[in-house]
């Protein structure tokens, strides 16, 4: 495989490039390189290619050879977009591994890996045929509207026309105009990423002389007073800052853009256009690195370093608030001193924005941030800075594993147990924790997994000595773990001491904390106002028209929402089934908790942190800032509040309903419940004062709740592992699940049964199902799941995956598979 095309001018060679297209196709496609592009093609560059009849795509060059494809005639590539590769050789190897391990296609990996601004859009352009005369009176209303718009604007995209007409189906109208020879249609690729440019103004050196400047000012004051104002503003601003931005000059002087333009034309000012970063960080003058580790942190750091001499992966199992972050910082400093890069993975954007402020104090502008709240252009900018090795440390969510690292020395996976590291839809359905281990191995780097409640698979590997294990058993500064009190909801209901959804114990603890100017976090793992609206007469419950779930009432919108597909409908006042007016709300979410608390405690400053309140870019950071600045007394939230937040004055945690976690039909329910309860509890009393956690439940004697109270992770682990072994679950077995989807349930039944029968020919009793999942219809697709369980020893999972792929491919070639979607998921969570 050639990395760059070798050009020999006297003996012209014909090159072919294998490219990765951003499509779910099972093989990479090969294109021919025009002779004049021989010197510009290189592995990792982007090329514009035609695929299909008219569609243009951006593809990434994966390899270069002189071998033409045997089965088809290679088309020519149209254009090379980059001067230098934007994807590295190591990344391409990583993409290939992801596609292979998680049973998807490299195009799907490319789609997940590349920021969307680096993937070009094939925009269909529509223009008037100026050479053809037509009678507008013969057109219908919508055709007339399009031609009128094209008279004003020379070209429109399909998306422009969709907005213009207010409807999605515009192709038939365009087809009609095209057939009448009124419009021409062409495919044109548009580059979406544009560097951010700012204009800086400097004064002509001639006018640095005070006499010349005074003379100029007198002339301008008489003839162009606005220009004189601009000159005065420039002199003032240039004393305050080295470079004067044109926008600042316009704002300060009140002069318009035309006045500045005139001064540039007169060569009083010179304008310089510079590419600037979109990533504005306020960096302190002084960086802090002189903190002192406690004795237990020093011991943990030394143990991690010792393990890294023998092991590539180490688990740092430290109780909440044990000070794991400071240990991370010391390890990052070591890597930076060695000139290597560090990736710091976090499961949630909430945690990323919170912890970045802490890390900036130590590392300043050498740390980059990468997550989905960044817009397209910002994501490209981070990508390019990593590619140029400008960022030594990158802190981000799971997609950060796809960045173009050159020499990755350390990956820290904080809160490694979190399910947020797993991508569910679309493919690749990868787990960033597991992918990070492979990625670090590729770079010859190390991985540190940190958690107070490790995933059982991770802990199992540590106990087998596959990973190093370091434990931190005490909180930083000697602060004790919070006191946990379990309160029976049933008992308080009998005693009539409940106030709405709050027990008397929780109400009293909140009141005392607020009197002492402390803060409270309330956890309810369900958003919205009420999960179910039910008719008291006939028990009718409104359901989503697209999914097999009941709709959740949201008070802020006054509508019923589906949390799976986004469908909304007005809340009925009369039962659609029996006509009764007795409709009531069952259950409660964070919105209702906040609403009812505002009635019970009207003077308390409340805030809510869930998906609904953190949709906009800065909303989440604003909530965290308000909590830190004590503008919030009580924060109500979903699982977002459980992950790594560190606030000095939060002393009381209320878990409103622990049963919603414990009574879930999943083999991981107890593990997840313990993790969630322990993590939420860990937010209390992190600095100085011991905190308190109130767990409200109908089942106070539940085994997991007792294990949480005693902070007995080992007992939970040993108990659950016995069950996992008996019922053939991870970590003793590997699981691959296959979802089959179809819009007709009867057809789906036959398809799923056929595929399961074909798989049983190869794997026998290892195949379980097909069975409907918990939610068996989403977005109008009915779902069946086939599960395959493979022993860890004696079975080649690589061969098993190859057989599964072949079986799925064979199924998709049959007439029976028509209309189906087949989605394999390796290591599902």
TrEMBL record:
GO MF annotations, alphabetized: 3'-5' DNA helicase activity; ATP binding; ATP hydrolysis activity; DNA binding; zinc ion binding
One Pfam family matching this protein: PriA_C
InterPro entries, alphabetized: DEAD/DEAH_box_helicase_dom (IPR011545), Helicase_ATP-bd (IPR014001), Helicase_C-like (IPR001650), P-loop_NTPase (IPR027417), PriA (IPR005259), PriA_3primeBD (IPR041222), PriA_3primeBD_sf (IPR042115), PriA_C (IPR041236)
Gene that encodes the chain: priA
A GO biological process held by the record: double-strand break repair
Entry protein name: Replication restart protein PriA
Cofactor(s) needed: Zn(2+)
Entry keywords, A to Z: ATP-binding, DNA replication, DNA-binding, Helicase, Hydrolase, Isomerase, Metal-binding, Nucleotide-binding, Primosome, Zinc
């Amino acid at each position: 495989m050639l990395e760059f095309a070798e050009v020999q001018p006297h003996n012209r060679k014909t090159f072919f490039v294998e490219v990765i297209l951003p499509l779910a196709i099972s093989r990479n496609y090969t294109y021919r390189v025009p002779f004049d592009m021989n010197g510009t093609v290189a592995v990792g560059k982007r090329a514009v290619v035609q695929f299909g009849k008219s569609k243009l795509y951006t593809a990434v060059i994966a390899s270069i050879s002189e071998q033409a494809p045997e089965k088809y005639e290679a088309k020519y590539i149209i254009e090379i977009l980059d001067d230098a590769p934007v994807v590295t050789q190591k990344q391409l190897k990583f993409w290939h591994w992801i596609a292979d391990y998680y049973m998807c296609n490299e195009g799907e990996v490319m789609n997940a890996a590349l920021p969307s601004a680096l993937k070009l859009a094939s925009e269909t352009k529509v223009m008037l045929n100026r050479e053809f005369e037509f009678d507008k009176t013969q057109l219908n209303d919508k055709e007339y509207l399009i031609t009128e718009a094209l008279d004003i604007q020379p070209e429109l995209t399909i998306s422009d026309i969709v907005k213009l007409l207010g409807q999605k189906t515009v192709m038939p109208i365009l087809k009609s105009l095209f057939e009448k020879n009124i419009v021409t249609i062409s495919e044109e690729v548009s580059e979406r990423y544009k560097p951010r440019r700012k204009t800086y103004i400097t004064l002509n050196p001639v006018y640095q002389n005070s006499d010349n400047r005074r003379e100029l000012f007198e002339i301008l004051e008489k003839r162009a007073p606005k220009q004189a104002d601009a000159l005065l503003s420039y002199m003032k601003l240039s004393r305050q800052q080295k470079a004067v931005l044109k926008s600042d000059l316009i704002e300060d002087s009140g002069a318009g853009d035309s006045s500045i333009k005139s001064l540039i034309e007169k060569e009083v000012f010179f304008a310089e256009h510079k590419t600037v970063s979109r990533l504005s960080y306020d960096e302190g003058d002084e960086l802090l690195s002189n903190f002192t580790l406690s004795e237990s942190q020093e011991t943990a750091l030394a143990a991690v370093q010792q393990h890294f001499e023998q092991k590539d992966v180490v688990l740092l199992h430290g109780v909440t608030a044990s000070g794991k972050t400071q240990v991370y910082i010391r390890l990052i400093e070591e890597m930076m001193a060695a000139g290597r890069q560090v990736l710091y993975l976090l499961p949630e954007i909430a945690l990323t924005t919170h912890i970045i402020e802490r890390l900036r104090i130590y590392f300043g502008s050498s740390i980059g941030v990468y997550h989905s709240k960044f817009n397209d252009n910002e994501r490209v900018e981070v990508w390019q800075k990593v590619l140029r090795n400008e960022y030594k440390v990158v802190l981000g969510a799971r997609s950060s594993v796809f960045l173009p690292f050159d020499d990755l020395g350390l990956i820290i996976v904080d809160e490694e147990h979190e399910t947020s590291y797993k991508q569910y839809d679309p493919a690749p359905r990868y787990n960033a924790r597991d992918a990070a281990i492979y990625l670090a191995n590729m770079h010859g780097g190390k991985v540190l997994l940190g958690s107070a409640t490790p995933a059982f698979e991770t802990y199992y590997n540590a106990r087998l000595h596959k990973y190093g294990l370091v434990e931190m058993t005490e909180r930083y500064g000697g602060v004790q773990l919070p006191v946990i009190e379990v309160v029976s909801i049933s008992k308080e209901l009998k005693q009539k001491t409940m106030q709405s959804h709050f027990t008397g114990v929780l109400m009293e603890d909140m009141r005392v904390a607020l009197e002492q100017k402390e803060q409270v976090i309330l956890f309810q793992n369900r958003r919205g106002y009420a999960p179910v609206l039910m008719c008291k007469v006939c028990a009718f419950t409104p359901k989503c028209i697209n999914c097999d779930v009941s709709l959740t009432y949201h008070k802020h919108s006054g509508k019923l929402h589906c949390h799976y597909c986004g469908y909304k409908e007005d809340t009925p006042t009369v039962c659609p089934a029996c006509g009764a007016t007795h409709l009531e709300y069952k259950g409660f979410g964070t919105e209702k908790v906040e609403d009812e608390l505002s009635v019970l405690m009207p003077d308390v400053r409340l805030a809510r942190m869930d998906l609904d309140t953190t949709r906009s870019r800065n909303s989440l950071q604003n909530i965290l800032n308000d909590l830190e600045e004590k503008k919030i007394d009580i924060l109500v939230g979903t699982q977002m509040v459980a992950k790594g937040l560190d606030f000095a004055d939060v002393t009381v945690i209320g878990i409103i309903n622990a049963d919603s976690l414990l009574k879930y039909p999943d083999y991981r329910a107890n593990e997840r419940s313990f993790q969630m309860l322990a993590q939420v509890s860990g937010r209390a009393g992190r600095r100085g004062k011991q905190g308190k956690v109130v767990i409200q439940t109908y089942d106070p004697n539940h085994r997991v709740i007792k294990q949480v109270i005693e902070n007995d992770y080992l007992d939970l682990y040993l108990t659950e592992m016995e069950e996992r072994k008996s019922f053939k679950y991870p970590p003793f077995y590997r699981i691959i699940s296959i979802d089959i989807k179809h819009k007709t349930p009867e057809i789906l039944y036959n398809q799923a049964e056929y595929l399961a029968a074909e798989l049983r020919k190869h794997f026998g009793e290892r195949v379980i199902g097909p069975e409907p999942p918990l939610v068996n219809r989403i977005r109008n697709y009915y779902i069946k799941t086939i599960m395959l369980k493979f022993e860890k020893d004696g079975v080649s999972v690589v061969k098993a995956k190859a057989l599964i792929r072949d079986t799925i491919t064979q199924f998709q070639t049959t007439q029976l598979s028509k209309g189906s979607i087949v989605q394999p998921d390796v290591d599902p969570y």
